[in-house]
Amino acid sequence: MILKDLIKGNEIFRKNQLPKIEHELKDLVENGQHPEVMFIGCSDSRVTPDLMLSTRPGDMFILRNVGNFVPPFKHDEDFHGSAAAIEYAVAVLKVKHIIICGHSHCGACQSLYQDIPNNDSLIHVKTWLNLGQKAKEKTLKNKNFTNDQEKFRETERNSIIHQLDNLLTYPDIERLLKSNELQIHGWYYDIGSAKIDFYDKENDVFKPLSEMPI
Ligand SMILES: [Zn+2]
User: Fold this and answer.
1) What's the gap in Å between 47 CA and the centre of ligand 1?
2) Nearest by Cα to 38 from 87, 75, 79
3) Which of 35, 121, 150, 202 has the most crowded Cβ, counting Cβ within 10 A?
């Protein structure tokens, strides 16, 4: 995929798909977006929210970052893009659901086990990955891995659970959960099979999405 493919891709989209959804887009332009779902996913190019969920323009407010991490609520004078997106989704769009969707073969989770040099090239990445440290610590308490890949898969799942905890540090989210105006979900997307599991908090296990109570 190179730049000319993207240019051609937009031409193809406008020619083939636009006529089918033109009325939807017109409505979204005139009436604005009213998504009921916020999707927090990894920036990984293999995670394709609209493709894997068959969603349409206006369906999901999407935040993507390295590792689908959620920074805990902590206001200071720095620029917190992920926190701003979460606040906007909750306070302005008033989404009904927030889905944190982790995925298999996540480079961010794997990087938790590597030394990242202290230099300007990756200094923000190094700091950002601290948001995965608790997932790594929890994973390492299980000593029964037969290989690294098993360890990485468990880290990816543990991270989803930890990021859900971080969502609870946002005062509005805590309040809206208590009043049942908002639900938060942890999903795990397997890149090879496109299967999604959800986190069943009560039983502390991941189960197929088809079994999710709604
Ligand atoms: Zn990832």
Assistant:
1) 8
2) 87
3) 35
CA 146 to ligand 1 centroid distance, Å = 22
Domain of residue 4, residue span = 1-31
pLDDT value, residue 55: 98
The count of domains in the chain is 2
**Residues 134 and 176 grouped into a single domain:** yes
Q: Is the pLDDT of residue 1 over 80?
A: no
Whether the pLDDT of residue 172 is over 90: the answer is yes
- Cα 156 to middle of ligand 1, angstroms: 8
Count of CB atoms situated within 10 Å of the CB of 181: 13
Q: What is the pLDDT of residue 195?
A: 98
Q: Say yes or no to pLDDT of 214 above 90.
A: no
Using the structure block, give the residue that is written with the tokens 């543990």. Answer: 158
Q: Residues 66, 68, 72, 73: what is their CA dihedral angle, to the nearest 10 degrees?
A: 90
